[in-house]
Amino acid sequence: MLSNERFTRREWLLGTLAAGLTVRQLALNAQTASKTSASKLGMPGLAPGRVVAVSHPACIVEGKFQAAPIAQILRDGMLELTAAPDLPSAWRLFFERGDVVGIKVNPVGGPLVISCPEVLHEIIKGLESAGVRRNDMVVYDRYRAQFLRMGFDKWLPEGVRWSWAAGDYDNVQQGIEGYDPEHYMDMAVTLPGYEIKNEAARRSYAAKFITQEVNKLINLPVLKHHQSAGVTLALKNLSHGLVNNVARSHSSKTLNVCGAFIPAVVAMPVIRNKAVLHILDGIKGVYHGGPSARPQFVWEHRTIYFATDPVALDHVCWNDIEKKRATSGMKPIAEAAPDKFSTFRHCQPEHVEIAGALGLGVFEESKMDVRRLALH
Fold first, then answer.
1. Sign of the C-alpha dihedral computed for residues 352, 353, 359 and 364 taken in this order
2. How far apart are CA 186 and CA 166, in angstroms?
């Protein structure tokens, strides 16, 4: 049984679901202990508000990814994003020899919808064209077991390293091994049954991967609906992949504070300053029942997105998921009632707008520069 103090706090948190301003205030009031050198490449990066969406009908054929069309997408997307004269010049705007570059993949929707090897290989080629050595590239996901289950280690060219923060998923996630005690986000939210004065329960510590192993990060998320966060795109791939103690952000079907938690984590300087490029793999997507990928809700979208601004990117991709839901006769994400596939009472895609309010990018569509390229 929860104490009266904790019950009152729980009821207050549940009340935030009905008041976007309160959720925003929770994010604004989060405290961080995290320092890293500021950079012009830090969020929202070199192209605030710009999102490039490149599609190719042949990038997936009979369920199999096609390397040549995907290479064409990566080339045209990077050139359009940067206005560089050639592909190596585009990559050199972000990376140079001596950089140690992390690539954050996403295995959660496996085996149907994960960061695909063909996209990862083109990113590695791009880094090489900028002078980055293979042993200075580190492919990462938070959980070693998930990384291996999806076979990411088998996709890596010789010399490219891989890393993780924890052995596997657990329900509490407060262990500090693999995480850096000097970098954390402190928010007045804990798992039920934990005292708010317990620092380990109210803090999320950044992985040593992002604080100590790399100086720049490429974010490689996928296109998915999410039961508690509404969507899981660029922002959530960072927030729930780079810190511990994330279960507290959505600990039950009604106790859900993803709207505040996600932007508060991404606003940590060590994350916002190091995540310099976001390439979202939308070749396949999930429009309902996420973060897992059930076959009936997977569709071949055949699009890859490019941005330095994760807020603008997530807003565009959120809209594209909504379009697919509409054509399938489904309500918008924020208005849909729970069902057996999406069980949270109120999912919170507003985390994207709140991230904009924290200065992580451009949310207003009127201020965005969205460029859609259709290749053949």
1. positive
2. 20
C-alpha span between 6 and 190 (Å, rounded): 10
Instruction: Please check the confidence at residue 2 and state whether its pLDDT lies above 80.
Output: no
Rounded CA separation 69/98 (Å): 30
Please say whether the beta carbons of 78 and 87 come within 8 A. Answer: yes
Tokens 């080339």 sit on residue? 75
Please state, in angstroms and as integers, the Cα–Cα distance from residue 154 to each residue in 126, 149, 161, 275, following that order.
20, 10, 11, 25
Q: How far is CA 259 from the centre of its chain?
A: 14
Q: Using the predicted structure, report yes or no on whether residue 171 has a pLDDT greater than 60.
A: yes
Residue 43 makes CB contacts below 8 A (sequence gap 6+) with: 266, 272, 273, 275, 308, 309, 310, 311, 359, 360, 361
Angle between helix 258-266 and 20-29 (nearest 10)? 30
For residue 247, give the DSSP letter.
Answer: G
For residue 208, report the phi and psi dihedrals to the nearest 5 degrees: -60, -25
**Rounded to an integer, what distance in angstroms lies between the CA atom of residue 161 and that of residue 208?**
15
**From the CB of residue 92, how many other CB atoms can be counted at a distance below 10 Å?**
18
**pLDDT, tens only, 279-314:** 999 999 999 999 999 999 999 999 999 999 999 999
**Has residue 227 got a pLDDT over 80?**
yes
Look up tokens 């009979």; give the residue. 62
Q: Give, in order, the Cα–Cα distances in Å from 363 to each of 40, 49, 202, 219, 310.
A: 19, 8, 28, 19, 9
How is 161-206 classified by DSSP, letter by letter? Answer: EEE-SBSS--SS----TTEEEEEEEE-S---TTS-TT-HHHHEEEE
Place of tokens 């009031």: 29
* 244 closest CA partner among 170, 311, 188: 170
Q: Give the tens place of pLDDT for each residue, 183-226.
A: 999 999 999 999 999 999 999 999 999 999 999 999 999 999 99
The encoded tokens of residue 6 equal 């904790």
Residue 41, helix vs strand vs coil: coil
Tokens of residue 373, six digits:
């390229």
Residue 9, pLDDT > 70, answer no
Which tokens hold the place of 201?
């329960």
Kindly state the DSSP code that residue 285 receives in the 8-state scheme.
E
Domain ranges of the chain: 4-374
